Fold these 3 entries.
Entry 1:
Amino acid sequence: IGVLRRKAAFLLHFLVRMLVGGLAIYFTNGCLASAGIGVAVGLNIMNLFIVGLLGTGGYGLLYAILLYMNL
């Protein structure tokens, strides 16, 4: 029973991080676009998986990779 509870808790946290990360990417892309900065991280399943797995570190990693590729 303890194993199932831990798996359920991990899955719930993963899904919440995916949702919050997706919203953060959406609003960050909007803010960057309104500021005239032409970089945007795509909202796709791979990026949501990265944000869901890594949390805020994954969010920062996606934007860091994007900025590095645009140098």
Entry 2:
Amino acid sequence: QLGRPSEILRLFNVPDLPIRLTQSTLNKAKNKHDLSVADLNDIALNVQTPIAVFINQALKYHGLHKQRQDV
């Protein structure tokens, strides 16, 4: 559980429901995006404080973008 959406996310109509991230999703992201365990350490904070929010109206999908710290 990553908590509930921050005020920033709610401004973009992200539902005020618990944010859950499963182990399988983490593994998929780690492999697909070449992430290390260190990249995932602050994932709860990164989800709550994105630098951009992308909304796909057709799919009702919210995407978050957070800049990597080592960039």
Entry 3:
Amino acid sequence: GTSSVITVTGAALNDSVLIGLTGAWGAPSSSGIITGTVTAANTVTLNFKNASTSALDLTSALYNINVLSNP
């Protein structure tokens, strides 16, 4: 898999990360899994896994990342 680290101001450890995707990663037969975890204050790590045999173009989609604060 591939990972990417992004800054999300206000994100805290144990917060939940929701990820929305607009667009496509590649051919209709391609599929992938994306997860997000708050790994440090203000830091979210996104993990991508290709779940198909087709190539994925991770830059061809628009990502909407929301962090939900957990008490």
